Amino acid sequence: MAVLLDLYSRKVVGWSMSNRNNTELVMNALRMALMRRKPKEPVLHHTDQGSVYGSDEYRKELSANAMIASMSRKGDCYDNAVAESFFSTFKNELMWENTFLTPNQGRTEAFDYIEVFYNRQRIHQTLGYQTPSQFEEPAVS
User: Given this structure, which CATH class describes domain 2-136?
Assistant: First the structure.
């Protein structure tokens, strides 16, 4: 699984699943995020040092969309703490409690977890006990 998180709101804005960890996996997650967010000004895009994020294809897509590539230093796990926290939460709240009989069932459950529960229902302490979607909503005066 590859996910792109908005650091401001902790919202999963792009994600993809595959039985292979390759450039296509991360490109699909990036394209979903771009389709959803349609950034109009430069965006900082931070990743770990995975080779898929350093591929020419991935870098070209970032550049074509005015995204500034940022990569964590070797051995610095704190650089990706938000992403690591998401994956820990995902595993604890979905994966360890369930058995998926088919890859499609796993994808469906992941979709429900991310799109229905995590982004719209799961509150976060760092967001003042709001969901990522609530946190992104403009304040009503």
Answer: alpha beta
Q: pLDDT by residue (tens digit) across 63-93?
A: 999 899 888 777 666 667 888 899 999 999 9
To which residue do tokens 């719209």 refer?
120
- 């459950």: which residue's tokens? 109
pLDDT cut 90: percent of the chain above it? 68
Are 10 and 126 in contact by the 8 Å Cβ rule? The answer is yes
Locate the domains of the chain by residue range. Answer: 2-136
